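Exercise 7.
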Amino acid sequence: MAPATTEDAVSTAPATTARTSVARTVTEVLQPRNVLLAGMLAIGLAAAGDWTGLLWGFLGALCAGLVPAGYIEWERGRGTWGDRHVVDRTKRAPIFFVILGSIGAGSVVMVLGNAPGGILVAMLALWVMTIGLLAVNTVWKISVDSAVASAVVALLAVVHSPWWLAAYALTVAVCWSRVALGYHTVAQTVAGAALGVATTLAYAFGG
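Solution. The predicted structure, written as tokens, is:
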């Protein structure tokens, strides 16, 4: 096989740059914070059946997504991590503990406030999923973004309609973007997505 020429390299460079740009846009737009904000609002609305569900949904999004995202940004400001992706697996444990504490606190508020069962189930599913992510992360770099995208779609399918399963196209897009950017392998994104749907279904149908 003939070696690649300089001309070949130049011709493939724009395609590679465009692919990276698209992947970066996908991974930023569909990051856990954004997915949880949209997903938990929809889950809360379905669970309550009226506008009050949006308040419970926002509480869920705050505890599961916005607070952890804020913690990451705070640590970035201190120079602990270079970016929100925290590519070094060994430095991720504190994030998981913050998520567990935040979701746990939000769940207590929901119980005390008699929140609709559907939004509480969603919180418990995310809490258990986080334990799974933490456990796996001790030995292997599993994809959190893929797990969250998968869990939210599965929860929406349970509380709204099975038609929401079509939104797994977005989960696939998240998985692709993480691999394209070099943050994860295919196996790590698939494992994350599988964990997300497994914990969701276990709580939705096993309770």
